[in-house]
Design goal:
It is a multi-pass membrane protein. The chain has 37 helices and 36 strands. With 1121 residues, the protein is an alpha/beta fold. The chain folds into eight domains: 159 residues, Rossmann fold (3-Layer(aba) Sandwich), CATH 3.40.50; 99 residues, D-Maltodextrin-Binding Protein, domain 2 (3-Layer(aba) Sandwich); 96 residues; 151 residues, Rossmann fold; 137 residues, D-Maltodextrin-Binding Protein, domain 2; 102 residues, Periplasmic binding protein-like II (D-Maltodextrin-Binding Protein, domain 2, 3-Layer(aba) Sandwich); 89 residues, no CATH class; 32 residues. It is flat, with a radius of gyration of 60 Å. The N terminus is likely disordered.
């Protein structure tokens, strides 16, 4: 049993070996050729090393370029053209001599053996020992050809059984006949150790820079990708060479560094590149004053100032020559005017002189451009911070006196040049900081007294702090920093790491990881800047404005004190001059004035005015009622006198028809209770008023606006504007803001019942405009039969009254301008459509049909008479034949036989020409008659409507817009046909669209709102018997607000808003009444179109049958006789 087991094991484990021995190769040379073909490519140069000649290998066995080297002799040529090696050894000692020769000789000194392929031809049986020795020498791509057995041996040092190359246990041996392609690929290191040395020579304090995370990530990739056990070893001052040697013996040794030579180590490809940048302080922000100065360049300011001065003097000299006097006061006035033109673009008076006009126009054009440029620059200067030039490049940095902070590891990347003044200057400014102190670098972002040289990646990691410095990316004096891995010299793992580095850098993983770790590590340094929205101007922005204001106020106070002293020393001549001045402001020269008084006074005399005037003593009645008075002057001693004067105006003929709110009043009084006078005047709806108070020391002019917020809509006088007569400004009565005062809108019975029409929306829209435009609080009050006059009076006392109506006279109320006009139109039934028979008849007019029939009959008889004369007999049968032939010619253009007689030929040709034209005209008319509906005349104008006797539906409020004329038969007839319906019954009006037995009188706007229904009726726009309907607002009599509403109505109607709103609301309200008509395509002829053809056919057939019957009876009768 034991023998059987042993035999089985031998067969399983040694069957390949014995199998190979059973079929030997022809000879050893063929095996060498086969191995070399598999191991070396054709372009490689081979080096054959031997210690003594041998028959095992000759150079004739290879076609590659080769070099034969006797290791017993030195080699002087150092050209690196050898790619791979062939070594012939007898034993381990001769192999060691050959490897030592390569290590210390010139030919292999610069080679990395891990990238070279080795073919070892040996007689030794101890193959494992050869592998172990070669692995110690970092030679891994090796094939051993054993000459005694002709076996090819391979072994992978990273195989799990070989213990990471420490002992050769797993050896793949095969016969040369069964040799497979040889490949050296080691992506699995089977957990072999790689020592990563942490040194202090590169980027100290790794816990504060992204480098450690980048290295850690890459080492993890190596671990995962190649199955390497990565071990960290921290190098300290106590670490010696023996310790490093022990690490080399136990695994692969590598560390991180920059791309500079290191003895005993080889650099990988760069896995990350650092770009150095200069950082310098940000430019200093300019103050607001400096920003304004920098709106224009210096030479522009000089030109602007010189232009203003030159224009002032040119204007002054020209005007002085015209006036024939030179006055400094005129120069001051011109200066002020031109400054006003320059700043605001206004002037109090345009010069009349043509030369001055030309100067003014040219200067205005110049100012428009300068002011536009200044305004655009001013906005930018106030909202956008401006800065000085600062340090912009390396030249500026070299010129500046700033110290430049730099780390020791960065200094050597600054270029050297003994003859470069720039480089030497910058080097003299360098301040080197300790390598393990990162905090000192951040000081350059918080102080403005230094610069720095850091990497671009560190700048990105600074976050918002980078916005605090200016970055100069000029690389003319700098070199880039390439980070690499350093691996022990001639280590095969270098190539694998290079492949991994190439993959990660080209994919962008390294850059992405560096950015993320930089933000993560330096994120705590960021400054959370507030989100900037719209720029809010602060005192710093507008400091120059306040400076100018304070300077201007100071100068104004100085001037005021001077003028006040002059006025105190030189008082106003008299009260009469003040009255003249006030009247010049509030009355125009063409106005007629009424001076009312109760007793003569010296405060006012008619000689003070040049206007037409009327003097009225309120104690006497006035009979003359002509309305020629425009404005009023009242001389009162107290409130009682004022009451008497206003009562006189209210109930007397001279002011009975006046609207006091549109008149200007000058009240001359000696009373001190000015507020009482204003309150009483406002109660009387007198608002355009100026009170001139006559005092012993001075004369005060008082004004007050009832719509001022403090005056509570005219119920109480709080705010009064008082001026000295010498400092009086132009007076204007404009009230665009009613400060929320109340306006009552009365819904009358006539308006309240029109809710189904667009009028209500139009009114609501206009009331909203009034509320917004004049700041009026609009309230609606519905007037019913139970509403009393006292209720209306209470509303009248609490606000303004208005309501909607048509433009008719109404007692106690005044009409505004029309805000919408309705045009009335007549609507009547559409004309009746003609039948197809009637349509054929209407192809030609009656006279054409008469001429056609007459021509045919005449031609028939002429033809018959001529042919009968030729035949010398007159026969009725010939007449019938000729008639049939001419009818065939007329309809189909054919004839059975052309006549031979020349006369008949001439008649035939003339008739054919005539028939062609008539037939063409008939055919064209026939197409139109069959495809287009024809209608009778119908009702075309008002005369036809009167004759038709149709009932005409209209509404109650529309009836009186029909003109009245007892002598007009048309008007009386139409009035008799009118059927009046209720104003709120819209449904009855629609019957005229569905029945054809009535007409109507409606507005044009209602017709537009009918939509497609308007196509079912005929519209007559004859305005000869009608008047237009003007819709207006009615406002209480003598109310000043009428003028304001008129201006607003004028604006909205002229802009087209009213028409647009009316159209939109009409369509919205009457949309449900529209009829959707089916779209018409090509006309398809039906029986209705061709009815006449069938009628003619049936009539012809009937006549033919009758004729046939008559002929049959005649023949039968002849046979009987």
């Amino acid at each position: 049993m034991s023998r059987f087991v042993l035999t089985t094991l031998l067969v399983l484990f040694y069957n390949p070996v014995y199998g190979s021995l059973q079929i030997p190769i022809n000879n050893f040379s063929e095996c060498v050729k086969k191995v070399m073909t598999t191991l070396f490519d054709k372009s490689s140069t081979l080096a054959y090393l031997y210690d003594k000649p041998s028959d095992l290998f000759t150079t004739s066995l290879t076609r590659n370029p080769y070099v034969t080297i006797n290791i017993k002799k030195p080699t002087i040529n150092t050209r690196g053209y050898v790619n791979h090696y062939i070594l012939k050894t007898d034993n381990a000692d001769s192999l060691e001599d050959a490897i030592n020769y390569l290590n210390y000789n010139q030919i292999g000194k610069k080679h990395i053996f891990t990238l070279r392929n080795f073919l070892i031809i040996t007689l030794s049986k101890n193959v494992s020992k050869i592998f172990e020795y070669l692995w110690q020498q970092t030679i891994y791509n090796v094939v051993i050809l054993e000459a005694s057995t002709v076996l090819v041996h391979q072994s992978d040092p990273c195989s799990p059984q070989n213990n990471c190359g420490k002992k050769a246990v797993a050896i793949n041996s095969c016969s040369c006949d069964f040799l497979k392609p040889i490949a050296f690929k080691r992506t699995n290191m089977s957990g072999c150790v790689m020592w990563f040395l942490n040194t202090n020579t590169f980027y100290e304090s790794t816990n504060l820079t992204p480098s450690l995370k980048l290295i850690k990530y890459f080492l993890q990739l190596i671990n995962l990708h190649f199955n390497v056990t990565v071990m960290d070893y921290f190098i300290t001052n106590s670490s010696n060479a023996y310790t490093i040697f022990q690490l080399h013996k136990s695994g692969i040794v590598c560390f991180m560094g920059v791309n500079t030579p290191t003895k005993g180590y080889e650099a990988t490809e760069r896995y990350y590149t650092h770009t150095l940048v200069w950082i310098v302080p940000q430019p200093t922000q300019m103050s607001s004053v400096e920003a304004l100065v920098h709106i224009f360049k210096f030479e522009v300011w000089i030109f602007v100032i010189l232009s203003i001065i030159f224009t002032i003097f040119a204007w002054w000299i020209t005007s002085s020559i015209v006036k024939k006097r030179f006055c400094v006061e005129d120069l001051c006035n011109i200066t002020i005017q031109l400054i006003c033109v320059s700043i605001w673009g206004i002037i109090n008076k345009v010069p009349k002189n043509k030369t001055l006009k030309c100067i003014f126009i040219i200067y205005v054009i110049y100012v428009v451009h300068i002011q536009t440029a200044f305004t655009s620059g001013l906005i930018k200067a106030l909202t956008t911070p401006l800065y000085d030039r600062g340090i912009e490049d390396v030249n500026d940095l070299a010129i500046s006196k700033l110290p430049i902070y730099i780390k020791p590891s960065t200094e050597k990347y600054l270029l050297t040049g003994d003859n470069s003044v720039k480089i030497n200057t910058i080097k003299s400014k360098l301040v080197i900081i300790r390598s393990n102190t990162n905090n000192e670098l951040w000081e350059i972002t918080t102080f403005r007294n230094c610069g720095g040289l850091i990497t671009e990646q560190l700048l990105k990691g600074m976050g918002n702090l980078a916005n605090r410095v200016r970055v100069i990316r000029e690389q003319s004096l700098l070199r880039k920093i390439d980070e690499v891995f350093k691996i022990e010299h001639k280590n095969y793992f270098l190539h694998s790491i290079n492949s991994l580095i190439r993959t990660t850098t080209e994919s962008g993983i390294m850059n992405k990881l560096w950015d993320d770790t930089s933000v993560e590590i330096f994120g705590h340094r960021e400054i959370n800047l507030a989100v900037q929205g719209a720029v809010v101007l602060t005192v710093n922005h507008l400091r120059i404005v306040f400076v100018i204001l304070l300077v201007g106020l100071f100068l104004s106070i100085v001037i005021f004190c001077g003028e006040f002293i002059s006025v105190w020393c030189i008082p106003t001549d008299n009260f009469s001059e003040c009255v003249k001045k006030v009247m010049g402001f509030i009355f125009d020269k063409s106005s007629t004035l009424a001076y009312l008084f109760d007793k003569p006074s010296d405060l006012f005399t008619t000689s003070l005015t040049k206007n037409p005037y009327v003097t009225i003593n309120i104690r006497k009645p006035t009979v003359n009622t002509q309305g020629y008075v425009n404005h009023y002057i009242l001389n009162t001693d107290s409130a009682n006198t004022l009451t008497n004067a206003l009562d006189y105006l209210t109930y007397n003929q001279i002011g009975k028809n006046h609207i006091f709110s549109s008149r200007n009043f000058l009240i001359i009084t000696i009373s001190k209770n000015i507020s009482e006078l204003f309150e009483y005047l406002w109660e009387k709806t007198i608002y355009n008023v100026v009170i001139l108070e006559a005092s012993v020391f001075n004369f005060l002019v008082h004004q007050s606006d009832p719509c001022s917020p403090q005056n509570n809509c005219g119920k109480k006088v709080v705010t009064i504007n008082s001026y000295l007569c010498d400092y009086l400004k132009p007076i204007a009565f404009k009230r665009a803001n009613m400060s929320g005062c109340t306006m009552w809108f009365l819904n009358t019975f006539q308006f309240n019942n029109m809710h189904s029409l667009p009028s209500l929306k139009l009114i609501k829209y206009f009331l909203d405009i009034i509320s917004l435009h004049f700041n009026v609080t609009v309230h609606q009050y519905t007037v019913t039969n139970s509403t009393t006059a006292f209720t209306i009076f209470k509303l009248y006392k609490s606000g303004i009254l208005c309501f909607m109506s048509v433009n008719t006279a109404m007692k106690g109320y005044e009409s505004t301008e029309r805000y919408y006009t309705h045009t009335l139109v007549w609507i009547v039934p559409q004309p009746k459509q003609l039948s197809s028979v009637e349509a054929l008849v209407h192809i030609f007019k009656l006279e054409v049909w008469i001429f056609v029939i007459f021509s045919t009959i005449f031609t028939i008889f002429v033809w018959w008479i001529i042919s009968s004369i030729i035949k010398k007999k007159f026969c009725i049968e010939d007449l019938c034949n000729i008639a049939i032939q001419l009818i065939c010619v007329s309809i189909w253009g054919i004839i059975s036989k052309i006549p031979k007689n020349k006369t008949l030929k001439c008649i035939f040709i003339i008739y054919v020409i005539y028939v062609v034209h008539i037939q063409t005209a008939f055919t064209s008319g026939l197409i139109k008659a069959l495809t287009m509906p024809l209608y009778d005349r119908g009702i075309e104008d008002v005369n036809d409507l009167a004759i038709s006797q149709l009932p005409i539906y209209t509404k109650e409020y529309t009836e009186h817009y029909l003109l009245t004329d007892e002598n007009s038969t048309i008007i009386n007839t139409i009035k008799n046909n009118l059927v009046t319906i209720r104003s709120d019954a819209n449904n009855e009006l629609w019957e005229i669209y569905t029945f054809r037995n009535c007409g109507g009188l409606i507005t044009e706007n209602l017709l537009k709102a009918m939509g497609t229904l308007s196509n079912t009726v005929r519209v007559i726009r004859d305005q000869s018997l009608l008047r237009k309907i003007d819709e207006v607002f009615k406002i209480e009599y003598t109310n000043y607000f009428l003028h304001s509403i008129n201006n607003l109505i004028r604006t909205t109607t002229e802009s087209g808003l009213m028409n647009k709103l009316w159209d939109d609301t009409s369509i919205e309200i009457f949309r449900h009444r529209e009829i959707k008509l089916a779209p018409q395509g090509a006309v398809v002829l039906s029986i209705n179109h061709l009815r006449i053809v069938f009628v003619i056919l049936l009539v012809g057939l009937f006549l033919s049958i009758v004729t046939f019957c008559c002929e049959l009876l005649t023949v039968w009768y002849v046979k009987l006789n």
